[in-house]
Design goal:
This protein is mostly helical and 359 residues long. The protein contains 13 helices and 8 strands. The strands form 3 sheets. Strands 1-2-3 form a 3-stranded antiparallel sheet, covered by helices on one side. It is elongated.
Amino acid sequence: MVAQNRPSDDTDTRTKHQRRSRSRHAGSISDYTTSQGQRWKFQIYVPKDPEQPELGETRLTRGGFKNLEGAQDALAAALKKKAQNERFQGTVPSLGVYANAWCASLRLEASTVLGYEKIIRNHITPALGDIRLDHLTATRIGRHYRELEASGRRDKRGYGKPLSANTVNKVHVVLGAILDVALDEGFIAVNPARRKRTVNAPRASQIRSQRPEIVTWTGDQLHGFLTWNHDVFGDDLFPLWRTIAYTGVRRSEALALRWGDLNFTTGRLAIRRAADVVERNKAKTTKTGSARVIDLDTETLAVLKAYKTTRGTISLDLARADAYVFGNDAAAIRSPNEISRRWRYRVRRAQMTSTTCRR
């Protein structure tokens, strides 16, 4: 008769105690038996002194939990507190310090992060940066917004003048997002920026009422500018203005076009990338994150075909499939900001010499 295999006592013990995690970093959870029934405990390693990390770590054990879920919640809270201690030496940081740490943790486009950093630098840190997170109140935030509305501009041309409702709202959005994360990490019990009645951030109706009226050119004005730009100004960037005008592509998308994106046989243009406005000579995904195809009119196609020939006479490398259509003579992507400056200069020149495209 063959004896049946039975688990050993050690196996029974391991099954009984059911360790959920053996990671020193993540902590561990186990159950144990008491006179009152099954209980759960967790263990993690924490710094002996958050302000002196060189002293090493010690084991922290907490037990008495009646179920696994309670132990898991307590472990998560302990790990959160440990992370806070490691980042900020066991203290609640100021808003300015925390805002910078928040920005550094973002995984967004560089231009988006740059915009957040500018808002923090100009409109949050100067007045609120020294306040501890847990000392920041809704009343103080509301007063700050009123101060921004009265004299919040920090640009050279308008320093000290009122900040628009739209910009104050952007400050509110960024500050609210920072404090949401601070709430999640346990630095604050509530987000004071979310107390709507006290904070009184700009409403959508206020933002709309302050938006400047957008005045667009008529078809005749656009035609007049392009004619002047080509025939009178003799602009080497005329193909760029023509392409943007007749396709509706964004400035950064046009600057990141490669000759391989243009099919002269089918007359179609593929928009696959955009120029980065922060890092020079770098392309990124389009604003929507997806590619699209545009049909070109015959005249624009002819302008681009002639332009490719001209680029090829400068250097064959400038007319290859992987070369940027509107790149500079060094085969690099032109800066979007530089192109905007050139556009504004040309519009001023056109308005000085002709009434055709005046607004």
